[in-house]
């Protein structure tokens, strides 16, 4: 049997390396696309959870976050919609019920974790830095404080397919405020790092390039359009 010479082996190795270099970009692209699809699925279910919550609460979306657990009007939106997306999971007064905590380690329940997000330490403090945020302008901030406006009742939103409700969000230093209040709060983890997946007030979900997201404002329709109660 003929033995391969060193030169022949080097040629074979070189060919394999060339083929691998040609295939890896396609594999990475496919992997990224799979993560995009997973994120769309997550946000679709979260958006529907927000809509179901609103149907049981006079049409209003859940609070965007919490300043304290002792005040009953405050609670994180993720925890408030938990019964709608994870039926049977006990909530009680725990604002972090959307996390799975065991043996001192914490991680978000599947729907609350963007597959393209950068992994963080498995501590409660680190995992509270949220993958997804709710639109501050249409989320009720504090129904007991007259200095803050109520959010928009979904039934009064015109063209809900154009009003963003939830989206990919950058990790926050203040985990008590899982909200998006300006363009810089978006987490651009998709479309090659140039776009975010966005869930709208009608329940549909799609990706948008960062260039298509307008600056925030009450009178910008994508955000608030002068939200009225």
TrEMBL record:
<feature type="domain" description="DUF1559">
    <location>
        <begin position="29"/>
        <end position="86"/>
    </location>
</feature>
<feature type="transmembrane region" description="Helical">
    <location>
        <begin position="6"/>
        <end position="27"/>
    </location>
</feature>
<keyword id="KW-0472">Membrane</keyword>
<dbReference type="Pfam" id="PF07596">
    <property type="entry name" value="SBP_bac_10"/>
</dbReference>
<keyword id="KW-1133">Transmembrane helix</keyword>
<dbReference type="InterPro" id="IPR012902">
    <property type="entry name" value="N_methyl_site"/>
</dbReference>
<dbReference type="InterPro" id="IPR045584">
    <property type="entry name" value="Pilin-like"/>
</dbReference>
<keyword id="KW-0812">Transmembrane</keyword>
<protein>
    <submittedName>
        <fullName>Type II secretion system protein</fullName>
    </submittedName>
</protein>
<dbReference type="InterPro" id="IPR011453">
    <property type="entry name" value="DUF1559"/>
</dbReference>
